[in-house]
Amino acid sequence: MGAENAVDESMDVDILPSTSGYRNIKDKEKDKRSVHLPWIEKYRPQVFSDIVGNEDTISRLAVFSQHGNCPNIIITGPPGVGKTTTILCLAHVLLGPAFKESVLELNASNDRGIDVVRNKIKMFAQKRVNLPKGKHKIIILDEADSMTDGAQQALRRTMEIYSNTTRFALACNNSEKIIEPIQSRCAMLRYGKLTDAQVLAKILEICKKENVSYTDDGLEAIVFTAQGDMRQALNNLQSTHNGFGHVNSENVFKVCDEPHPLLIKEMLEFCTQGNISKAYGIIEHLWKMGYSAEDLISNIFRVCKNLPIEETLKLDFIKEIGITHLGMVDGINSLLQINSLLARLCQRALQS
Ligand SMILES: Nc1ncnc2c1ncn2[C@@H]1O[C@H](COP(=O)(O)OP(=O)(O)OP(=O)(O)O)[C@@H](O)[C@H]1O
Ligand SMILES: [Mg+2]
């Protein structure tokens, strides 16, 4: 049992970045292994203070974790902003060394039908674990929006009956998929996308630690493609670094397989001059490179948002882009549709 724990502990520590200057042989061995870890795991925050963004919510959780009496919680928000990370930090801070025996973690890769709620979750809730006064066992239900309604219904009473010994922590992308009665039993914490500055600060820090060679426009491109998703930012940074050895915007857009925003910007500028044939030339080139209509339209929108043009014209542009996007979601996604968008943009620009 002791030996088993030792192995597990060393595996846990393995994903921690080294924080002290002191390095022994064991550390070096771990470093060798951690070379092959994806950076999203290598740099997964272990304490609340390392989690970027959503400060209000995280500071509230930090207070809960100090007092020990945490309510049932649901963290909801877009992918890659730190929901799972936060729950794991909370459980580690609350339970410390007792984490292993007093936390049950289930995510979408586990079967979580009604039987699992009736058996596994209930069994765990009934299990006796010696914890200090005021601490509770924690059941983590990650990606809870993929649980069936039946399983969620079965959870309702379980949550109440075992409330003196067990707490639930749920994470999901879409809070509408969590049934009302479960929502009413939990404190709902909403996470928003991270800001560009927050993503940039984190990737700069990692570039320094990993000795990544980069240019400013390369990091800007990473932030642009990540759209507030820290996981995507780290993955794209690592892929570009591994694939090309140098992070500049060209390489980033090759790795992320997105149309280069400078081309899109140029295209929109031709539209503002009413020059449809040149604008169409660029779109046709991108289309031939194999980008889908959805790729193009979402990129056109993101570039248009920051385009230095008159505000009323920009609003008109965004409206037209929105209407075209609506059509594409309905399945009308031909090159002709994008061409018609360009024609309307040119028309708007000439009218203004
Ligand atoms: N706020 C953050 N601060 C620092 N790193 C972050 C943050 N959010 C995400 N990350 C990085 O991204 C990785 C994935 O984050 P996490 O698993 O918490 O995302 P999630 O919000 O649970 O996403 P999903 O909805 O897809 O499950 C982490 O391992 C970490 O490296
Ligand atoms: Mg998650």
TrEMBL record:
Keyword DNA-binding appears in the UniProt entry: no
Mind listing the UniProt keywords for this protein, alphabetically?
ATP-binding, DNA replication, Nucleotide-binding
SUPFAM superfamilies given for it? Answer: P-loop containing nucleoside triphosphate hydrolases, post-AAA+ oligomerization domain-like
> Taxonomically, which superkingdom?
Eukaryota
Q: Which InterPro entries match?
A: AAA+_ATPase, ATPase_AAA_core, DNA_pol3_clamp-load_cplx_C, DNA_Rep/Repair_Clamp_Loader, P-loop_NTPase, Rep_factorC_C, RFC_lid
Per the record, the similarity remark reads: Belongs to the activator 1 small subunits family.
Q: What is this protein called?
A: Replication factor C subunit 2
Organism listed in the record: Xylocopa violacea (Violet carpenter bee)
